[in-house]
Fold these 3 entries.
Entry 1:
Amino acid sequence: MSNYPKEIENFHNTILKLMGIVSIESGIDSLEEVDAELLQISQFSHLPHAALLRTKGGLKNEVAKCII
């Protein structure tokens, strides 16, 4: 049983039907505390660097959807 809501689980199952896809994970990252200094750390490499640098960091209540 997945810990994802039913809609997300259905999305994952649809993506898994694509040729070459063997696994999928997704989540939400808060960008509110992210600044240019944090973007240098590998754990933040999946975030939208150009957008975050343009606004000098995450905006209030800003999130990023991540699909791996």
Entry 2:
Amino acid sequence: MDQSSKIDKLVELQKLLEAGVLTKEELEEQKKKILETKENEEPESPSIIDSEELAPETSFFQKYKIAIVGASAIIIVALLSFLFFQKGQSSQNISNDSEEEAQSIVAEAEQDSIYLVNSVTEELHYIFCFKIQGEAVSGYAKMAGNSSRASLEGTIDKDRWLIIRVTEDKETGRFEGKLDSDSFSGTLFPPNGKETTSWNAKRMTKEQVNELENKVNELLARMPVVNENQQESDNYSFTGVIQGGDKQYTFTMSLGIENDGNVTGYYYVTNGENKPVELSGQVEEWADNLQGNITLYEFDSATHKATGYYFQGFLSIEHSELGRFAGYSIEGYYKNSDKINWPFTAQTE
């Protein structure tokens, strides 16, 4: 080692001393080695231990860089695994929440159906069921105890003014009024410009409507109905009107109709002599249809001879609004050959 190299080494040692890396004893020992080194002879390489002692003090991060990097990698992997797990759990929860929400929406949509019930009598109730979507209203109308339904559609504005149209092939009525939380109050507009009437309905739940339907069905089951296979004679009382030119004649008629369609009975004019007049005649196809063309001939009650006058028309079955048998009606003409041909109508009492 030449003189210049020795000086450089000594200067480096001095810097290490000043930096606190070497103690004075270590400095002196190293100086001695450098100074004793002959020219062109390198000093003995220090051992690994010596090299670590001579190396400048490293920072904690530098000293444990590999360990820190490894630990960081493990932490990052663990963190990512945790995040992915949470994400999976979150996705599953979102999926479950979405499914539950969808089911809730369906259930809520069913619950959102509005039921209005207009009760006329114990067994006669009109039911309106509809949903509101924006300003549009749609649903159906029916009578309690009857499966037939009519279409219902309409509109509602921000003030809850409701317009409902009920149609069965054609419009059968229009309802307009205010829909409140527990009722509907408004006006019924019949078709063909007929006179309007006030109309009110009570709001009910689906469960209440079902209870009402069951109650009406029980009542209807106890109502007497016509027995189409009945073999005995049936007796019916009618009230009617004969339009005799400018004058009307009201009458009461009692008829017994046998299974084969033969008819016997009597009638009397209530705003006339009030004298009973015997009747005898026939209802065509009575056995099969319980209705048909009817001809009733007059007979003098004293002589039992035909008077030449007779009723001729059609005897038809009448039904209630619930579709049940409600009696009979006769519509036709009261005649005497070519002398008179007066229209008449009669209904069972």
Entry 3:
Amino acid sequence: MKVTKDQCLTLAILALMGTAFFLLNYYSPLRADDYYYQFFIVDHYPQPADVARPICSMSDVFHSQVNHYFLLNGRFTNHFVVQSFVSLWGKGWFNVCTSVVFVLFLVGTVRLVRYNQPASAKDYVLIIAVWWVLQPQIGCMYNGVAFPVNYLWAMTLCVYFLLAVLRQIRNPRQVPLWHLILLFLFALLTGSTHEGFTIPISGALFLYSLYHRGRLGRVTWVLIIGLWIGTAFVALAPGTLYRANHPYLTQFDWGVYFAGKLEIIRCSKRFYLMVCLMLTGWAACGRLRIKTFIQENSLVFLIIAVNFAFILLIYEYMQRMEFLIEYLSIIVSLKVIYWASRSKWFYRFFCPQLLVILIVHVSLSVYLSMLFCDAYRQMIASYLQSTDGVADYHTVEMPYGFGNRFLPIDGYEKEYLSATLGKSDRMRLRIIEEHPK
């Protein structure tokens, strides 16, 4: 089989992004929950992680995660992977694995935008560049181990699940029994990853199936039912239900509730971009074409709507809850651009500029990660030499638009970092200077 020049360019782009992402992870130390999961999680409160009992074997990981599932959180699949890497396999192997997952995520994202259409190297440049610059909370995808597994790895499974469902909806076909079993297990795995992603997708598929019940084939139902079971495994876990009824959350305060919901208005910038592009497309291309576009992407719009409803039902708000909304808003925005742009000038004019922007932006991200990693290591060295628990921390000043690349160091992280380093004095930070831009 002859490899074309365009395929070589596509592989080069993916290799470039994979290498850059490996460097981002290489210069990203363990963070926050990573220190917590280095210890065995016991089956009782008030301190579930036993700092006197580090994880030593896969048996420890399994039993720890069983306790975790019944006590703290239903994401057994995700946190089993996290605890295995941070305790046994090491950050080095994780850097390699997560870089491969990232490349698969990029390929899936391009396929989600250019569904049923061939994707050229120029498509990869356009889609990856726009996603990279606009994607919110991108720091969740490469800070430490727990955040990438819970966001990048889970989102990658969701992307390929959506591709499988859309393929069966638009072009249903029969498959052998062993294929059905594999698809069911894949959907089950996807559903068991992150309730913030799978509950909106499950809810949207429920509404979609009510309207299109007679047109969904056997394979589609296998995928949907597998996702529902996996989602129920996470959402109805004893640990998840306990968190939902935590005293902090049951002490309802309308002021806190509305303050959190107002944050949705401030943080949904990519959603507004999608709406503006759709209105522009409506004005430029006519009502009938925009109606056809909405019908073709009705499942994606349903997921966004259900996700908004899900967030409104949750008392506590965190910006990461909008991760799926913002991601799908970028996907739809790119679809609008392709749908409204038919001529080749679009590629010739935008792709060279976007490629330059992508290279500069990724290079700056790697450079800032190096600065942050150096500051973090200096902080740990200062803490180890400290006699009173005070550590000097040189903050890294971020250029505009890069503030969400690095997660803040909170009290939770300082507590378990202290235990990991074997220090009795809990870490306290002393911010003394900033790196220049």
